């Protein structure tokens, strides 16, 4: 008997159901758990208070990233450089202690493998296709780029996973985002996902797991797929998926924690079954024409506030419903923008290249290729590059990218989350603008009063050179 | 967490849409290693505006918050739920929530009630006039002193957990045998899945 055609999401879900309660809530097995310092201390403390052990410590990987300063972490003698903020220091120390206390593998602040959890997971082969991956961080959606069901969880759920290696979940609805055609030259994965968020809206994916389908995604590198899936949460979807294929297998082959030898062959044989069957039904379908995607940039304080770089700041009156008009007025007021201004006339004082969205080697190469032989404009006060991991940093230095950034007037930093969320000292001052390759342009996200314009690494580099938002295609 | 059956009292007429978790509690407050005291940082950027509802004496200690679409979007930080709880809020009424936030709310004994925008508009009026609102989880209804009566849906498992103040970890630990069987069922065919992570 032929089984019912299933979506990729249904296949991964079905494969992880431990049992389903009468009310439909399922106990879902979790294959991989990433832990960082910010959302875990209360979970470890709760385990301690209840005397509960970690069920499968080897399936959790702990890495500090959010709070770490991106300046030097060891002095010339190899001693730890003290962290100025006592609260940050205490939180980092808590993870450094909790991980070994509970038998969990810990990558330390100065290890070459340290980095943003969502960069480290794929890089180490910890994240694998067809697995369930969680982390107390909403950008866990990134790992969907490998064909994993990956999503962010709260601290109570972190505790739940540590204690039981499972989560209690209701099945989500499935949404297909199908992109037809190919992207034009100069248009990147970041531009595409920003465009998609603009089309479906910041809440458009609520209650859904998105599967991205179409030739565009098949032709993308793994790093580009990670960028796309990363921002699924910005459309409200807890997870985004792209079916794993040869590109993914090639990427994972030989990674430290990936299967080896005969195990590798078995794994790949299984991974090849991980695709949506012909005839499988999605609860919702959205079709995007790739030809409509331009290099994109945000103007407001929600990732859905996105326009093509050639467009103008929209008028609030151009929106159909009153609540959106009111939101736009508020956003423009916060952003200090006047409707009708050309996006390319907006000056920027700060440039941030980094974050779990865009801090991998291809991102740095893209930015460096624009910056090569050029300098940041005089009005750009602060420009930093924060590699996603120590390994990305090493690779970039081997390729000489650090020199290009330094020569262009950028600072070359140690890996971490940095100015994406303004937890560590890397913040954008009140009232100033930042052209940022991160994922959120929320009010105060990069620091109180900071004004964020989201864009791709190449576009951030172009903005640095011009001193205002700019179309990278006009520089090359 | 504390059990919850009814929440009655004044409601903060906030009403804003797409309220993200950075608005609910900015990152600066996430450096704590405890769950307590986050109310002080709650809605910091909103409270910087003169005349905001959160600092209006009329709503001090109000146990209900009225919000717009997509409340709690953005990050997975449970600090957002802890901050709201620390303000004394036990029920939120909004047309929709982000998936992660609503889960975090329930796990902390906060009831996220979903009602259509028309109902929210009416409740905003009632709250703005300073009248009390009643949220009853048992009967799944929201009522006002003016005969307004709105029914809401809630996932039965979430309702059960809220009504009894259940600890989900303890609940799942009762199913350890089933989890062990699941792990056993994958041994052999999926050994490759865990070899690479062995410590």
Describe the structure.
Chain A is an alpha/beta fold and 476 residues long. Chain A has helices at 8-14, 41-50, 86-101, 117-123, 155-164, 189-200, 215-218, 222-230, 246-252, 261-271, 322-335, 361-371, 390-398, 401-407, 457-466, and strands at residues 17-20, 26-29, 32-35, 60-62, 105-106, 132-135, 149-152, 166-169, 173-180, 208-213, 239-241, 284-289, 296-298, 306-308, 350-353, 382-385, 411-412, 433-436, 451-454. Chain A has a five-stranded parallel beta sheet with strand order 5-4-3-6-7, with helices on both faces. Chain A is globular and about 55 Å long. The model of chain A has no long low-confidence stretch (mean pLDDT 97). Chain B is α/β, with parallel strands linked by helices and 199 residues long. Chain B has a single domain (6-166), classed as Aconitase, domain 4 (Alpha-Beta Barrel), CATH 3.20.19.10. The chains are: A alpha/beta (476), B alpha/beta (199). Chains A and B meet through α2, α3, α5 and α10 of A and α4, α6, α7, α8 and α9 of B.
